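Quarterly update, task 2.4: calcium ion-bound model.
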Amino acid sequence: AKERGRNNYQLYTTSMNEDAMQKLSLERYLRKALGLDEFVLFYQPQVNVQSGEIFGVEALLRWKHPTLGMVSPASFIPLAEETGLIVPIGEWVLRTACEQIKSWHAAGYGHLTVAVNLSARQFQQEDLVEMVQRVLEETSVEPRFLELEITESVTMHNVERAIVILNELKNLGIRISLDDFGTGYSSLSYLKHFPIHTLKIDQSFVRDITTDADDAAIATSVIALAHSLNLQVVAEGVETEEHLRYLAARGCVEMQGYHFSRPLPAQEIEALFQSGKTF
Ligand code: C2E
Ligand code: CA
Ligand code: CA
Ligand code: CA
């Protein structure tokens, strides 16, 4: 029994060390990834289900590591946040997305918007607004084609400051959307103080929308709320025809999800435009 106890202990510490080691080496890799050109943006179409047309895309970060393979943002974004690496990475994302939208506009897709995710750490940066303005100028993208996605929790951290920053961003002419809406501390009374354009219904409410009465009630309320506040509403995680129909019947017109398309590399998005495909 004593013997086994010791082995267990060793196993335990070994795996603890391995976890720490893994995180350390992931962090080391992450520090180099930007310089080594290992990041790439995928784009997921956002569809107007009335016209069947793609009106915009959401830029989603991908990390292609030579030996680790494709690393999911769910595993490296938190580490990038923790280490502050999200700040330079986030700037790269914004610049790359703006260059891409510029090139799509030049190719004749003049109406497209691009949505870029902004993390909490980026939102806290003193020079966020200057950085966004600089990138817009350097890429000469018209601000109205850029949407920044922030989560509710990012704004709730310091509401007064969030209102100031969001107004500054709005004054640049860009659009703001509240991502994962409904999952944070619901702060409905703040909504009217936030200069936002779009609510994104979180995919957790869409997944079981046709079978779970609570999820259906929440999604339906968010749509009604958006309409009465004159906000755009985009449903995320639309995976099936049933999801689409249910949401459309409740007045949601703009959607995003695997039912239409997975996030795709820029070239495949172009092929989709060129095919003239509607949804
Ligand atoms: P998010 O902003 O909520 O993005 C939506 C996520 O849902 C994406 O995962 C997308 O691929 C996935 N998705 C889209 N349609 C469907 C669907 O129909 N069903 C399901 N089950 N999932 C769907 P992804 O690309 O793995 O990104 C995960 C999260 O990582 C994002 O969640 C976002 O919070 C973060 N992230 C991604 N790119 C960036 C970035 O450039 N900057 C920052 N700060 N965060 C990012
Ligand atoms: Ca998002
Ligand atoms: Ca989301
Ligand atoms: Ca439920």
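Highlight for this quarter: The first strand starts at residue 39 and ends at 48.
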